[in-house]
Amino acid sequence: MFSCHSSLGRARGLLRPLGTNTLRSYASPAKKANAIDFSAMETKWKARWADAPSSTADPSKPSYYVLSMFPYPSGLLHMGHVRVYTISDTLQRFRRMQGYNVLHPMGWDAFGLPAENAAIERGIHPAEWTVKNIAAMKEQMSKLTIDFDWSREVRTCDPDYYRWTQYIFLEMYKAGLAYQKEAVVNWDPVDQTVLANEQVDAEGKSWRSGALVERKKLRQWFFKVTDFAEDLLNDIDLLTHWPERVKQMQRHWIGKSQGAEFEFSVLAENVSPLKVFTSRPDTLYGVQYLVVSPEHELIKRERLPAGQADEVLTFVEDLGKVQNMEEAEESKKGVFTGLYASHPVTSEQIPIYVAPYVLSDYGTGAVMGVPAHDKRDWDFCRANNVVDKIKFVIESPIKEVGVTEEPTEPFTAHGILTGISGPYKGMKSKEAGKAILKKAIQAGFGHSATQYRLKDWLLSRQRYWGAPIPIVHCPTCKVVPVPQEDLPVPLPLDVTFTGKGGSPLARATDWLNCKCPKCNGPATRETDTMDTFVDSSWYFMRYTDPHNTSLPFDPKIASERLPVDIYIGGVEHAILHLLYSRFFSKFLYKQGAIAPSPNKLPGNGEPFNVLLTQGMVHGRTFKDPVTQRFLKPEEVDLTDFNKPKIIATGESPSISYEKMSKSKYNGVDPTSVVEEQGVDPTRLHILYKAPPSEVLEWDDASIIGMQRWIAKVLKLSSTAGESRLKLELPELEAMTGEERDMYRTTHLTIKQVTESMSTSFGFNTAISDLIKLSNCVSGSKVEASSPVYQHAVQSIVKMMAPMTPTVGEECWEELGEKESVFQQEWPKWEDKALAKDNVECMIQINGKTRLSVNLPAALVGNTEEIERRARESPVGQKWLGEKSIRRAIVAKNGELVNFVLQN
Ligand SMILES: [Zn+2]
Questions:
Q1: What spacing in Å lies between the alpha carbon of 517 and ligand 1's midpoint?
Q2: What pLDDT is recorded for position 426?
Q3: In a domain, 750, yes or no
Q4: Which of 36, 47, 61, 461 lies 20 to 30 A from 330 at CA?
Q5: Ligand 1 centroid vs 456 CA: distance in angstroms?
Q6: Of 426, 452, 478, at which residue does a domain stop?
Q7: What is the pLDDT of residue 327?
Q8: Backbone angles phi and psi of 549, in degrees to 5
């Protein structure tokens, strides 16, 4: 037996003398109180795990699928990764100990722009760059003792994977959900290539050539996600274990609005009426102009009045040259087309404008201008002097008396219709909207309509490093899907990267030219590749059956694992990735490719049951309070962690916690942290410092607290191990009072930690509870040889093991056990153990609380005994006197008894 850390070192060879660590500049210096050699402990257990893996899939056990979002292989693991994998690894180890057949896979979201940029800038082939980065990140991950099932690893850039991405695309195509149409892209006129939004700078210039980016229409591929809009919206209600914030973001993105579509006839020869959607039919009388998108069919020379056509067409052409697309949508610019429409109820002539803020793919590509009741219309109307006087057709039911001035802003709320609305004057907005719509239906100029903000998913990318779209273009047969047996359409590796002249695929002539699968004539391949969001919309399904060579996955195997039980990842993916994954999953569910048992939540083909969105990791940031300059680590003296000094000036820097970035010198390299502080203390620190969904303010200084606790549990374990007599746990009644207390605290902790791990994910609370239990054990008078003591320490070790795998194993060994701690069952609590020895029982006499008695738990509810004890006390005697009890009522689990006396 040993009582101090150094003896542990000699005994186990895991310690090293104090002060051998080189501390990082931001770490609290010279405070490494304990000297456990975590690195040696990690090496020891990694070797043992390699010899005898603790996780073996057992299909007879119930399935549990823990998924963390797979990373982009940038080559560098950051603290955010460490946080998400620590959470997922903790959960999967916990579930495994609970007896589940756990799936905890990992892979790589390996296609995408950075690899292609590296090829252009540094001449490294994207494939080579990606493979190198994956190797580097795997090496970093292996340091974190995260137990991923690498036998299921997927890489989206492998032909074995993207073959099935192409297969699913073709299934979508067959179902009519993949189609082509023209869409506007960012076009670099110098490099003759399409740019992603992130390659266009704030001034609308290309990242590479510096040229002003143009809007250009190209024929592109879309997924008809809008067909699923209603399901995607309604089924949000099934997602009871998703954060409310994420659900709100999904609802907003889908953006359902109900309203009406009205027709305005155009006062020109051979021009069909303009259809406009509005969510506010009650404002129809306030329509003072119409606006169409620059891409609208009205904007053609033959449809525009001769005098106006040049100006309009030049305006539309120039739009592309001055701004990128996103700015155009914010713009207030517009020009009169020279055309007028007739208002369907007032027959007034109203002007038709063209403006970029109207999106061609939202609704009908035309909107009604109601400046009095819409902020954007108000701004547009005033910027372009569309009308002299703005018509307010709705007013607030509450009016300020005596105000006659012109309103200075639009009135966008619901209200009461004014006299301008003719027969609808005095009606409330909702009621008027219905009445106007009814009139429109009768008169034949409108009908009710539903509109979604959600657009179809533009999945074409004019890029090289992505999954080729499996389509062939034939001069005779036009668009021909590649037969599924000919998949994959491989990405040719022998291409050159210049960043100019479009996608390298368009120049890979050997690959480009092919035979038409239908007529066998000469044809060309589609050169667009798929958006990487396509790859990541189904990777979690592939994990269930990763080596399948005849299907993306076997429906039966996938259905046993899906939906994912818990999905952990950053909130930045809360919209697109989750929405697209839901779309894919719902599509495949409808196709019968996945058919989970109907009692599995959430149902309706929803892919993820619990969603845990982890917060960011912020770094400690120092600024010079005078110059506001960010300070480098070497410019700050951190001898006193709480009172840092700027070395040059002796002043105190301003300290904040901010998103880690190179320019703020506040980044933390996870690899060096775990090397210096140990993996398990780092894991514990991550889990302890903040609940998973909140921002984690990183500082190394407080890791020491976790190291101290680990040292304490190691000591408790060896104390228990050395004194162990392998005795059976006595019955509750046979325990001493001290044992009883320890046993109760142990079981209370088991209950609380189990709940924290399975429902609230409050790992910080779980750790506090375990720290309290270890304090209870170390401060108790119970002998270490007592089975109650042994039981308490074993429980602590089992419960901390998922968070600290190597320490868990080490302690378990100290306890004299041979098997891995991960082969142990997660401890269960006994309700009767939670009961207190004594209960304070309140006594009422005729409904009034008069006294209390302290009862042994066994006597709770025993009214005769309670009466006897009450009569023994002076207070009881005073109230009970000689009277006998007519009735005794027991309440609050026996903690309250009401004696009703005989009169
Ligand atoms: Zn053909």
A1: 7
A2: 94
A3: no
A4: 461
A5: 28
A6: 452
A7: 63
A8: -105, 0
pLDDT at residue 374 in the model: 93
Peptide bond into 670 cis (omega under 30): no
Say what the pLDDT of residue 55 is.
Answer: 59
CATH of the domain at 870: 3.10.20.590
In a domain, 806, yes or no: no
Residue where one domain finishes, among candidates 614, 638, 655: 614
Structure tokens at 310: 């040049």
CA of 480 to the centre of ligand 1 (A): 7
Distance in Å, CA 221 to ligand 1 centroid: 20
Tokens representing residue 217 in the block: 């229409």
pLDDT digits (tens, 9 = 90+) for 622-647: 999 988 899 998 899 988 888 899 99
Q: Are 464 and 530 in contact (CB under 8 A)?
A: no
Count up the domains in the chain and report the number: 4
Between CA 811 and CA 612 the distance in angstroms is: 30
Tally of residues, the chain:
903
Amino acid at 218: L
Q: Are residues 270 and 407 in the same domain?
A: yes
Q: Are 902 and 886 in contact (CB under 8 A)?
A: yes
Q: Do 416 and 283 belong together in one domain?
A: yes
294 with 435, same domain? yes
SS3 content of the chain, % helix, strand, coil (to 5): 40, 20, 40
Residue ranges for the chain with pLDDT beneath 50:
1-34, 323
Give the Å distance between the CA of 511 and the centre of ligand 1.
Answer: 17
Helix (H, G, I), strand (E, B) or coil at 228: helix
Domain that holds residue 283: 256-452
Residue 69 Cα to ligand 1 midpoint, Å, equals 41
CA of residue 478 to ligand 1 center, whole Å? 7
pLDDT at 7: 32
Is residue 579 in some structural domain?
yes
3 state SS of 353: strand
User: What residues flank ion ligand 1 with Cβ within 5 A?
Assistant: 474, 476-477, 516, 518-519
